Structure formats: structure tokens, C-alpha cells
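@channel anyone free to eyeball this complex?
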Amino acid sequence: MPGFKFLNQTAEEREKLFINLYKNAFPTVARYVSKMGGTFDEAKDIFQDTLVIYYEKSVECSVELKTNEKTYLLGIAKHLWLKQYRDNSKLIPLNDLDIESEETTQASDRKILSFLQTAGKKCMDLLRSFYYDGLPLADAAELFGFSGVRSATVQKYKCLEKVRETVKQKALTYEDFVD
Amino acid sequence: MRTSLIETEQIEAHLMQRSEPGDQLVFEARSLLEPELHEKMQWQQEAYRMVKLYGRDQLKQEIEAVHQKLFTQKAHLSFSQKIRRLFINR
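replying in thread with the prediction:
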């Protein structure tokens, strides 16, 4: 879908994107939440989750955009509102909007994450840009200052191995991690 | 690339279903015969999950920073007032 997949290489570009989305769509979403009896903070939470879903879907490029951006964001927000605050999700044909709430991220995950953040932030940032932001290798190589795609690839797999080993070791420490 | 990195790359191709159907079968057979490889695959899957959680956490922080900017900076006063007016009686 041309035009929908946005570039999100740098933190600055993402900031610009989110400011635009806020200005463009938050008034509509806030009006909806207000009309439904919600508070400012609820509107904020709903909208921020909406942005995360929108971002992830656009990176996966799995979204068929049938309407404009604002309408699409409002659609996600309405689903989230009905799901989270009105508990009548059975009546609503929810599609695969699968954002995990904070509650569903297990305590053991949090422990491992905070360890990875302190002990291997550089690797996590590199892996994030590949796997979460969907950055092409050549762009990531430039962003992280590698000499080329090849050395970026090598570093990516080195980092992945490091994280894999950390996750394994830590998981064995936190017994509740493995089912 | 050193051997272990090549294997990590192969595991990735397998988990993300990017390898050729023939290679896919060979890899599946190998993972049945080599418990160590099978284990690596499971932990690698966990590693991807952690990277996703990390990415999401970071993104949420970036979005929150944007929110703070829009609702505290004078440059965006008319925008923030417009939103706050919607909730004036709550």
C-alpha cells in the first residue's frame, strides 16, 4: 500500500510523526471518549495505545487502509474503548488488534527487560530498529555507524545471540518464566 | 560470519518462515535430532518477544514525551485548551 508505510528511522522522525497524529486525530478521539463519559486521562490512555497499534500495524504493513488516517485511528480507539471500558467486547467484532496491556506483561518479563535495558541497551536498541521498527539493514547500518550492511548483519546476529543467552539464563533464574 | 552466527541466521529464517520449503524440512528434521538446536530455537523465539516488548516500551515513552510536549509547551496552547475544554465538567 503505497504511502501508508511511514519512515521511522530516527527518534526525531518518530516524534514528528506522533505530533502530527496527535494534532490530526486526538481531538476526534477525545471528543468520542468525552461523549462516552470518559475522562481526559482515559482519552489519553486510549489514544496512546491506539498510536502503538497503528505504528505496529504500519510496520508490519498488514493494514488495508480503506479510509483516511483519522477515521482509521478513531476506529481503533473505539474498539479499545469498548473493549476496555464497557466490557461488551463480545458484541463487537474485534479483529486482531492484539496490544498487550501492562497487566498481561508478566513480572518475570519485566525483570528480564530491565536487566536487558541496563546490561545491553546498545544491543537492544539495534535489535529494536531491525525487528520492531522494521528498518532496512542498509538504513540501520548508517544510523548505527556501521561500515556497511555486512557488518551490521554480523552485529545484529551477535546481539541476538547475546540476548538469547541472557533470556535463557535469566529465565532459568526466574522459575515462573517457563510454563 | 562465524559458524554460530550462521546458525542463528538459519534459525531466524526458519522461525520467520523465510527459508525455502526444502531447507525448512531439513531444518525441522535437524531440530528433532539435535535437542540443543531445538532449545536454541525456543530461546531465540523468546529473544524476539523480548525485543518486541522492549520496542513497545520505548515507543510508549516516546509517545508520552510527545504528549507532555503538547500539553505543557506554550507553542501548543490552543491545541491543549481545545482538548481540555472537552472534559471541562469531569
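from a first look: Chain A has two domains: 11-102, 105-169.
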